[in-house]
Amino acid sequence: MKRLMLTTLLWLGLQLTAQAEERLFYQPLNSDAALSREQWRKIWQASARHGVKTLIVQWTAYGDSNFGNAHGWLADSLRQARDQGLQLVLGLYMDPAYYQRIEQLDSAGLETYWQAQLASSLDRQRKLREDWKLPVSGWYLPMELDDLHFQAADRRTTLHRQLKDFARQLDAPLHLSAFSAGHLAPQVNAAWLGELASAGLQLWWQDGAGTGRLAPLVRDTYASALPCSVGIVHEAFRQTSAAGQPFHAEPAAPDARPGGCHASAVFSLRYRPWGKPLLDHPLTTKARNVQNH
Question: Would you report the helix, strand and coil content of the chain in percent, each value rounded to 5?
Fold first, then answer.
């Protein structure tokens, strides 16, 4: 009986791990170019072995960094990921000043800024299609949403319209993530994200376990309010840097509890055991400033 119980518990643990790892985020940094093709092959093999089926690449251009374009290290690495059977959701363009800009702008300015950034991402999507020629199952917009800068209902309404227009111009589903900082009530936050998801977007809500902005009980309240259409990203790190400092974190196990009706993903490859080569290379100052979530 004890052996049967142990076997059952082990099987359940493996099932939870497989569920949590089915979708895995990868945030490219310039320092990742130091890895060899053989290292990348082993990383993608291990990803597939751990149950990863879809790789969500957070961005393919960050400011003036495009990670080598169609013949560079990132494109080559992602082709190897495809060779290992991984589906790709490719990230578009990220403005390094995004968080500063949305902090400074009023509602009219934010609408104009978002429109400009969406135009840049649309240009990026077309370039990826024409030059990289990688089969994709979706596109990821790196401009994360939060409940501080989108507290006002008019901002959320404008954003909804902009994202619907943008998604209609893509040839694969649009993915977008959000996080909570306690500025909208859980039910209001859930209704907002659910409305975006109903517009045909794949919305991802970050569970906040890594950054620790909210107490665990508060995070659970936000999570339990979410409609089934919103996926949950489990953060596999614990932030060690203080507010205002360059981001730094240590690997940690993601929440392995069943996600119920929610799709689940893990952030990120860099903090998973088989992604250790990505942490072994010292980050440049620029790369360290990029590394946030």
Answer: 50, 20, 35
